[in-house]
Amino acid sequence: MSKVETMRWRDGRLELIDQRLLPERFEYVVCDCAERVAEAIRSMIVRGAPAIGCAAAYGIALEALRTSGEDHPVFDATLEHAFEVLARSRPTAVNLFWALERMRHAWKRMAGQPPGLIAATLLEEAHDIFAEDLRSNLAIGERGAALVPPGARILTHCNAGALATAGHGTALGVIRSAQAQGKNVSVIAAETRPFLQGARLTAWEMVQEDIPVTLVTDNMVGYLMSRGEIDLVVVGADRVAANGDVANKIGTYTIAVLAERHGIPFYVACPLSTIDRSLESGSAIPIEERSPEEVLGFRATRWAAEGVRARNPAFDVTPAALVTALITEKDTVTRPEREKIERLFERR
Ligand code: MRU
User: Fold this and answer.
1) pLDDT-based confidence at residue 1 (cuts at 50, 70, 90)
2) Is the ipTM of this complex over 0.90?
3) Ligand 1 center to residue 116 CA distance, Å?
4) From the CA of 34, how far away is ligand 1's center (Å)?
5) Is the CB of 224 under 6 A from ligand 1?
6) Percentage helix, strand, coil, to 5, in the chain?
7) Nearest to 159 by CA among 199, 123, 194
8) Where in the chain are all domains bearing CATH 1.20.120.420?
9) Is 109 marked as a binding-site residue?
10) Which of 23, 196, 267, 305 is the most buried (most CB within 10 A)?
11) Residues tagged active-site
């Protein structure tokens, strides 16, 4: 298990590590309503597909608790608004919508019950979503570790760690579990421009766990692969389409192409809550376009001249054909494709 507590429920409120400040400062931000949670998701205080799903679930619970003293029409309208606000926070990671759907079902199952009882049920549901994500990550870690040879030098991109989930992580969960099995791995963390999740978050998480980590800029990956310095790649995912195409942090596609070119295994680790069977292929996945400011500079420093325009797509899509295996809590799917992905759900 990881030592990092990305989010915690304390005294009736949700506390989130402010991931914008890491690694310089370690601080929790306190959220007491859905609007505040949505803002935390939008501004990347909390980020990573499963983590924003869990946070959104707690956002609904917070709003229900806050208005549980009201009568039904007011309570229902407030809760409906909370769903809308949270659903608008970020578009790509399907875990957010998956978690909101679960919360809506829990609400509808309680139709006609007193608001106080509904609020208590919604808090239980949010706790369950959180606990299930943690369990899934531990299972993903165990499955994935079986694919990791002793002494492997593992490239990862962005942060798919404890910070991005309820704990343990998906891609970093595989690395943590492999290390716990004594595999003596080392990690190459790609910096992940422009928000630097690799440099700021993954490298920090690995230091917390005493797992050797080397930071590289994104454009060094091809060089390292060509020199035989990377044994395998493992990344997380924000949304996997029905055919196995994978949306993940911008730059993932480039790494997958390079891995194919060099015959290096490219693994994607994610829970079933990241798979969106309603989308035929990756081309239908909505890709978030973030502010150009994130590319033109970082925090208070601007490095591009005034008048320069920038693009900032936050994710890209890796075709299923480039994925060696999809590692989920249920099974490891080698060379993912529609029928194999469908089978994952049949056996549930
Ligand atoms: O923009 P972010 O930081 O939310 O993007 C996160 C990623 O792309 C992760 O790889 C993905 O969410 C998987 S997290 C287990």
Assistant:
1) low
2) yes
3) 35
4) 21
5) no
6) 45, 15, 40
7) 199
8) 7-138
9) no
10) 267
11) 238
